[in-house]
């Protein structure tokens, strides 16, 4: 693909066709290398999830974890189905567009063209499956963090309901629960900080030829939908963690700490102070994953696309194309 890019530097359309797939493959390779390099850290996260502190909640609150598991399973199955459709389109579109291979290859293959065709489809299928698995695995961990924040919120709220009256005996029970809540909160913060996004924003170049709708247009449209879903899942889970981490501090204000022992107020103060700074998941420490950043990315992408289309349609820019 690098050879194809160098060969078609002056052909803007062919260059964009090669670049969008090349960048996708490059991103997948980077994610695989990052995951392999951080394998020990990832295994530590899995072991950390077995800590009893994450199970220190009443059985009736388990519905938060059940909801997260079902949600993650549904997202994973839907996402993989769409990715599978994209792979099928890559299998079919060269036949419809009368191209020799799904992806550009600079050398003449002769009778070995069919072997290369099968090789490209199989490798793309394996890569797409692994890529989607990495994405859904990471978002599932983010979902667990969000569910644990919901559970912690309910545990703090229940303190007021289970021990509504002031008294030495009640305050001892409250202190015992609050100590556990502080440990639980610290564990969630540690878990969220461990989820690092080794993702690189793709600089996508989409060229839509006005008035032309062919198999490649449908394939690119499917590809764009996958990218938008991929980004939305990450940003949505990141946004959930941010919102729910702030709500922990709000739960502390619902307890009548002013009528209780001084130690109760101290533990609540610790939790509230830790909740002032929302938990965030960042991508390579450059951008915070949230719905706001997703909206900004869409606006930026649309502006770039509009500019590219204007350059493509402007007769004065033909020499650049």
TrEMBL record:
Transmembrane segments: 78-96, 111-129
Subcellular location(s) per record: Cell membrane
CC terms in the record's Gene Ontology section: plasma membrane
Keywords from the UniProt entry: Cell membrane, Membrane, Olfaction, Receptor, Sensory transduction, Transducer, Transmembrane, Transmembrane helix
Any Gene Ontology biological process: signal transduction
Topological type in the membrane: Multi-pass membrane protein
Pfam families cross-referenced by the UniProt entry: 7tm_6 (PF02949)
RNA-binding keyword on record: no
Protein name: Odorant receptor
Source organism of the structure: Pyrocoelia pectoralis
Organism lineage string: Eukaryota, Metazoa, Ecdysozoa, Arthropoda, Hexapoda
